[in-house]
């Protein structure tokens, strides 16, 4: 009896030790977040073990999360939901049933997951698109682009781009009764990266007549040349997206070369030849004072690394939308950016807000002072987060006013 009790005590102490993580004081629902985080960390550990034993790819294990949250396309009296294809790319399409005389608005949505995991068919993304469609009486196209490591850069971008181009054809807009002047694009995390890149590249595309009225970026990743911005330093061990996982996603998107992962970890991946690009992500210039606190800017261009030149992809604005000239930002549409305080990607979003405003683009910036990365993916189920639901509501309200 005593022995059993002892083992139970040891086991529960170990479990509590594993789950418990000190979190910032102002974070809501801390225990829920800790449990979510423990779940993700277990998945990361399992992935590492599977990889070490040579039993499978790391990302196949992480991607079990996607499979576990799959939901089939389900229509109801308000929205017809179907899985179909636009060109060669699978999409989940939401068409509101409500009849009206005026043409409908439309949104293209691109899910997150570090270019390596995730799907439009995940329960929370499905719900977000359904709400958007219902409340705006809008057509929503949620894109299931191909994922790394099987398909590396620029496949995810090209899939998202081709869906946008397909949808923006006048014959297709007519087919779905969509108003060509009221279409937007949105995405979270890696999906925010893709949405920003697609919006930029469409500006220069002579084949596309309809342009986006708005873009909405949820805590997007927008650059890859400086992985030591203040937010990277402050939040490297925060729940959901620790820096090592982000770096793993990033390196898988670009190459199978393991030395690249190591170069990214030490921020030694940009060759001196590309020093001129650092001005685009210079946090000393672009971050408001309160985000710089406790950090001293050291010019990254004083480093002299010889690794980055092997990966020109890193410097491609389709991979890193922040690396585009100011003049090219000018034509961008009204932009909604959400950033979260406890997120490695926080400063990417804030720098983009600063640069867009400087270029004369109208931006609504919603900075959430008490959130970690990725909360929009927890909209439903036992671990649904209030803060994610509020974020979704604010976003849809903003869309309703501005699209
Ligand atoms: C970054 O900005 C600071 C402050 O404006 C400036 O002194 C520095 O030269 C800049 N560095 C780069 C690489 O742009």
Automatic annotation (TrEMBL):
What would be one Gene Ontology cellular-component term for the protein?
membrane
Query: What start and end residues bound the annotated signal peptide?
Result: 1-24
Keyword Disulfide bond attached:
yes
**Which Pfam families does the record match to this protein?**
Abhydrolase_3 (PF07859)
Recorded GO molecular functions are: carboxylic ester hydrolase activity
Instruction: List keywords of the entry alphabetically.
Output: Disulfide bond, Hydrolase, Signal
Q: Which family does it belong to?
A: Belongs to the 'GDXG' lipolytic enzyme family.
| UniProt protein name | Arylacetamide deacetylase isoform X1
Q: What is the organism of origin for this protein?
A: Pantherophis guttatus (Corn snake)
